[in-house]
Amino acid sequence: MLRGGAFKPRTSPYAFQGLGLQGLKILAKARQQTGLPIVTEVIDPRDVSWVAEFADVLQIGTRNMQNFSLLKEVGRAGRPALLKRGMHSTLEEWLNCAEYILSEGNPNVILCERGIRTFEKYTRNTLDLSAVPAIKELSHLPIVIDPTHSTGRISMIGPMSMAAVAAGADGLLVEVHHKPESALCDADQALTPDMFTSIMRRLKPLKSFLDQLPI
Q1: Is the distance from CB of 36 to CB of 2 less than 8 angstroms?
Q2: What percent of the chain has pLDDT over 90?
Q3: What is the CATH number of the domain that holds 175?
Q4: Where are the beta strands (DSSP E) in 99-190?
Q5: Interacting residues of 125 by C-beta distance below 8 A, sequence separation 6+
Q6: pTM for this structure?
């Protein structure tokens, strides 16, 4: 899938906030040209219905994980939801937020572990890979790992992607930009297409090997 943020909730009100409707139209054009389903974030309950007209999957970001009005609207939207874990949230809180979506009749919820806030400052966040087997024990929902926002370091995206696959993650959410140096958001953690391809080439044989191991 192709994930692009038309709306970007940022820590600073003066930072780039996304292209809004123009960005959604660009994503729709990309889907038409590539055939890739589109994942994009929605941040306001009032916007869910019309954002759903452009998106195949609605993302709920870490800052909105407990925005219960938004969760309910996404649950009614008829689109699969990608629910990121809150940066200060427990697994129980995260799963309860997923229940808000499920309870509105939407069974298609994907959980995304994107790192939690700890005292460590070397990485942007602390990637909780133990969440993968824990979610497998606690829930039937698929879980994907975001090694980009969790580490904030290009050099760590490859190793953490491999660790995520080894832990049993159902997918990865990786940030890629053809010219990271000119990106308006998260330039320091975006892979080039060649870097992304190289990581994927390493992951495929690892996944194949793990699939052959006895349970």
Answers
A1: yes
A2: 73
A3: 3.20.20.70
A4: 109-113, 143-145, 171-172
A5: 87, 114, 115, 116, 117, 118, 149, 150, 151, 152
A6: 0.91
